[in-house]
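Slide 14.
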Amino acid sequence: MGKGHEKRKYIRASFRAKAYLKFPGEGPKAYPAEAKDISLRGVYVFLDRQYPAGTPCAIDICLGGYDNPVCIHVDGKVVWNDERGVGIEFDEMDIESLLRLKQVLYYNTGMPEEIDRELTGKKV
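Slide 15: predicted structure.
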């Protein structure tokens, strides 16, 4: 089992949402998953397969309804895994996805000031 999740530095929110992962070299197939918790720097998803740490991936975390979901689009990499899923560190996302992620964290943590501090890198 990976131990990376024990070194958390960012506020995490318990957050369940549909997610879809794509891995380079595996074609256009998107593997369905479920987000369990999320932070500004990463997400843990339940996934029925494992990938070695360092494996790059693209992930869509979908918010809202099934007809026209709004998604957070992120490029990242697997940093740890366990028997139930994988921890993914975010490498890159567009501004719209960052703003959506920020709103998800505001709502689910109730700590907007702390989230803003994490975004700006300011210490208290």
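Speaker note: Strands lie at 13-22, 31-38, 42-46, 56-63, 70-81, 85-93.
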